[in-house]
Design goal:
Layout: H1 2-25, E1 29-33, H2 39-45, E2 50-51, E3 60-68, E4 74-82, E5 90-97, H3 103-122, E6 153-166, E7 169-183, E8 187-204, E9 207-225, E10 230-241, E11 246-259, E12 269-284, E13 294-310, E14 313-324, E15 331-344, E16 347-358, H4 371-376, E17 385-395
Parallel strand pairs: 1-2, 1-3
Antiparallel strand pairs: 3-4, 4-5, 6-7, 7-8, 8-9, 9-10, 10-11, 11-12, 12-13, 13-14, 14-15, 15-16, 16-17
Length: 410
């Protein structure tokens, strides 16, 4: 009798679970992982399916991944993965977003692409009874492609001002930038100029401290594709900085890079090894701690970059180092890490941080740093290391459905 009392709840629970699973198999339970799309708008527009808040409740998963394109726009991939009754039904939808696209145009592109990707799943459910398909014939073909008068060149100019203050202090900052990009499958060119003007004034009783910080930089990068795994390039830059004790600096670095994975898989995984070596010239504002006013040196740089994007989260890891060849003890090594991992239902952990071991500050002025410059960080100071970290946890629980959007008082 006790055994029967024990089995009855189990049987009821099993039957209830079977009914729920059967209902779930007759529709689409969608989990959307996408940082740049407007999820609330998508939920509102795709109200004929269930939107679940946890990946474990889903039988269809969409993961959105975006990359910047050469014209200032975005290339987006929507990766569809089927589970449970849709196991093995996987696909990828790719679309481009123009640099001048409005928010409405962007979200409509997402809606259109998601609908395309959901079609194979819809036709395997009763939802197919409500499906209508229309096709608008396009006049576009290979023979009448529009001519690009800019030949893939994209230019941008920006000017920014930031000011703040109160009775005892004032701060004024002016930043300008000019940039030109040319990106094709075979090569990349990036040309730019940046200028920064910053002035700070502090007043206390009869004491006034006024500091001016000016810097400019220009750069030219050229990168050539050498197949699925190899790239070569040349990087050059020049400029000045009162903060870093440079009246002028200039360098040129030939470079080579190898990606263990093919470059066309970089949106989901990459492991790149890059190496640069070349001369650098420095003309210092003040005599350095090495008693130099100017010098020409050779420098080498090595970077290791790992990136992985999966349904369970993403990982980015970089290890980088540089070294002056005239004195091998003048080097720096650093690392950067970002990770976001889903541990269990609704529980995620994310961490990002960086650390640098610094032994190559040949530009530090031998002149004493004033107390004001020290407190306000107006001049670069000698240090052996630097670091920063950010750690967080998130946990979400409750109803597994996320179908309702209510924008009131937002």
């Amino acid at each position: 009798m006790k055994a029967i009392k024990f089995l009855i709840p189990l049987i009821i629970s099993f039957l209830f679970s079977s009914i729920i699973n059967a209902q779930n198999d007759s529709t689409i339970n969608l989990y959307l992982k996408c940082d740049l799309c407007e999820k609330e708008y998508i939920i509102k527009e795709l109200n004929f399916i269930n939107h679940v808040r946890d990946i474990n409740y889903a039988n269809v998963i969409i993961m959105g991944i975006s990359e910047s394109t050469g014209n200032g726009g975005t290339k987006t991939r929507l990766i569809f993965e089927g589970r449970n009754n849709f196991q093995g039904m996987n696909d990828t939808i790719v679309f481009n977003i123009n640099y001048d696209a409005t928010s409405n145009e962007i979200r409509n592109l997402y809606i259109k692409s998601i609908k395309f990707g959901l079609l194979p799943y819809i036709i395997k459910t009763p939802l197919k009874e409500n499906l209508e398909i229309e096709f608008s014939k396009s006049n576009f073909n290979e023979q009448n492609k529009p001519v690009d008068p800019w030949n893939n060149w994209v230019f941008s100019v920006s000017l920014q001002n930031y000011s703040n203050g109160e009775e005892s202090r004032k701060s004024f900052n002016l930043y300008s930038r000019i940039n030109a990009d040319h990106v094709t499958e075979k090569s990349k060119i990036n040309i730019g100029f940046n200028n920064n003007f910053s002035r700070s004034t502090y007043t206390y009783n009869d004491y006034t401290y006024d500091y001016l910080n000016i810097s400019y930089s220009s750069y030219l990068y050229y990168i050539k594709s050498l197949g699925e795994h190899w790239s070569a390039g040349i990087f050059t830059s020049a400029g000045n900085s009162t903060f870093s004790n440079y009246d002028f600096y200039g360098n040129i670095y030939p470079a080579i890079e190898y990606n263990i994975f093919p470059y066309d898989k970089s949106f989901e995984k990459q492991f790149r090894i890059s190496y640069r070596i070349g001369p650098a010239y420095f003309d210092y504002t003040d005599t350095t701690i090495f008693l130099k006013t100017k010098e020409l040196v050779a420098q080498q740089k090595l970077n290791l970059d790992l990136g992985i994007v999966k349904n369970w989260g993403s990982i980015d890891l970089s290890v980088y180092g540089s070294q002056y060849l005239h004195d091998l003890e003048l080097f720096s090594i650093g690392t950067y890490f970002y990770g976001s991992v889903r541990i269990i239902k609704g529980f995620s952990v994310f961490f990002h941080g960086g650390y640098s071991m610094i032994r190559n500050q040949i530009n530090i002025s031998k002149a004493d740093i004033s107390q004001e410059e020290l407190l306000l960080q107006q001049r670069q100071m000698k240090t052996n290391y630097s670091y920063w970290t950010n750690l967080g946890l998130s946990y979400t629980f409750g109803s597994k459905f996320n179908n309702v959007v209510n924008p009131r008082f937002e």
